[in-house]
Design brief:
Elements lengths: L2 E6 L6 H12 L7 E2 L14 E2 L2 H5 L5 E5 L2 E5 L1 H10 L2 E5 L2 H11 L3 E7 L3 H11 L3 H7 L10 H4 L2 E5 L3 H16 L2
Parallel strand pairs: 1-6, 1-7, 2-3, 7-8
Antiparallel strand pairs: 2-5, 4-5
Bound molecules: adenosine-5'-triphosphate and ligand LQESDW3C.
The ligand Nc1nc2c(ncn2[C@@H]2O[C@H](COP(=O)(O)O)[C@@H](O)[C@H]2O)c(=O)[nH]1 binds next to strand 4, strand 5 and helix 4.
């Protein structure tokens, strides 16, 4: 059965880092989503996201979409189906609302990987080091933007505490091995 590793978690927890590692080490590509937010230093159009204008975003058909501040994000069923034509296991980064939508629709195909750290201080330090604007960091690490795992999704999630990258790599190897053999 084709599988989707659905990755969610707070900003700075390492979702992008993990998805890039899955692609590079295990040939598990990430299904790209669309956003209207500005490109960050180091990001590459059509590799990090499909970057859209408000107008181009409004013309797309999404399986689910959300708004963060004044920016939109959305993912399509079509992109997932296309990715599954070439790879049995793929990954997708979404927020908690997006994760709930995918779990409701295709739960049996989803491995829900909730990535976090042992403290918010670690998140803030990583985002500062990444060069994020300190005011934006405050927004990202508060309220619904923090992407806390709600009780209703705790039973569906594999929680990965990404404090130590070597431990994370070992845990990912175990997860991928079990997905390939299930
Ligand atoms: N285990 C780790 N130890 C130290 N630094 C890490 C670790 N994992 C990721 N990082 C670093 O933390 C920063 C944030 O990681 P990343 O961009 O992957 O987070 P994210 O969850 O995708 O964040 P966002 O949702 O804001 O895009 C990056 O600079 C990354 O290199
Ligand atoms: N529900 C969805 N959430 C998405 C999608 N693409 C990204 N995201 C999530 O948005 C926030 C902010 O992302 P950032 O790149 O600006 O830091 C983060 O939680 C992502 O996981 C999507 O298509 N649908």
């Amino acid at each position: 059965m084709q599988k989707l590793i659905l990755i969610a978690g707070p900003s700075g927890a390492g979702k992008t880092t993990v998805s890039e590692y899955l692609a590079q080490k295990f040939a598990i590509p990430r299904v790209l989503t669309h956003t209207t937010r500005p490109i960050r230093p180091g990001e590459i159009p059509n590799k990090s996201y499909h970057f859209e204008s408000e107008e181009s975003f409004s013309q797309l058909h999404f399986f689910e979409h959300v708004q963060y501040g004044s920016y939109q994000y959305g993912s399509s069923q079509e992109a997932l189906t296309n990715a599954w034509e070439h790879h049995d296991i793929v990954s997708l980064i979404v927020d908690i609302k997006g994760a709930a939508s995918y779990l409701a629709a295709i739960r049996e195909q989803v491995f829900f990987l909730y990535i976090t750290t042992s403290s918010q201080r670690i998140l803030a330090e990583r985002l500062l080091k990444r060069g994020d604007d300190p005011n934006k960091i405050k927004e990202r690490l508060s309220g619904s933007e923090l992407n806390t795992l709600p009780d209703s999704l705790k039973g569906s999630a594999h929680i990965l505490v990404n404090d130590d990258w070597n431990e994370t790599k070992n845990e990912l190897a175990t997860i991928v091995h079990s997905l390939k053999n299930s």
